[in-house]
């Protein structure tokens, strides 16, 4: 098996949440990867990937399998960039110690202030508890925000809420993918997306002026190649059954199946149809899978990148901060 730039390991399709728009349609009765499947896949890679991401489902639901996976990856590729993507509901000090032991980067999901996130994902109190724990343990994390018709309206509040947790260092914006349980009606409207991104930029600038900086994953410079390894045929996603796809968004779509662990693969580039775009020289490109799943979603991603490509605007209004019950409360 040729070595990818990015290897995503879907450790389990079991999950303790029922997110309205889960693109893998995960449930509490999913499948967990056997150690032999992962060992076979890792052994077949000729060179180390640039990055390995362990995701799910919810990988912290299977802590023994998670620790085994971390150990196998570190043993095979000691210096690889290794990270975990989690919903952040099941963290404790022991898990933090394991992540520290194996030098694991951490990404959590939160799609709005607690009351908004609760209606979209659930278990918001548990996520907040994990953020407090990570802050006490001085263990940094990034937050991924899924952009939907509801969450985009709360982007400024989400940024300001997350800024109170020292562990949070970066933000990522993940436009809804029309797969699994997601529906077209949950895609954000263009004007709402533009308004939400404007508020997000103002919130980030307001925080920066006060000494609290959060980096934005989507604000990346243009390089000679697309930011997406799948667009270069250099991304592999390993499922619990051992099947391999070019992107997690396309898992289960048999026309995109590349092969199985331990067997030959048929590499495939995913095209994003960016040729001829007037922003092509500045933009790092868009997600090809999102465009495959929905041209409307692909167009929204172009809008997102267009809004962010020119840099963060200076704030045109100020956020008034008050203190209530020992917590930061932001009023707009």
Automatic annotation (TrEMBL):
Keyword set for this entry? 4Fe-4S, Iron, Iron-sulfur, Metal-binding, Oxidoreductase, S-adenosyl-L-methionine
Return the CDD domains for the record: Radical_SAM
SUPFAM superfamilies recorded: Radical SAM enzymes
State the needed cofactors, names only: [4Fe-4S] cluster
Name one molecular function that GO assigns to this entry. oxidoreductase activity
Recorded superkingdom: Bacteria
InterPro entries, alphabetically? Answer: Aldolase_TIM (IPR013785), MoaA_NifB_PqqE_Fe-S-bd_CS (IPR000385), Radical_SAM_PqqE_MftC-like (IPR050377), rSAM (IPR007197), rSAM_sf (IPR058240)
Q: Which PANTHER family match?
A: PQQA PEPTIDE CYCLASE, RADICAL SAM DOMAIN PROTEIN
Name-wise, this protein is Radical SAM protein
List the lineage, top down. Answer: Bacteria, Pseudomonadati, Thermodesulfobacteriota, Thermodesulfobacteria, Thermodesulfobacteriales
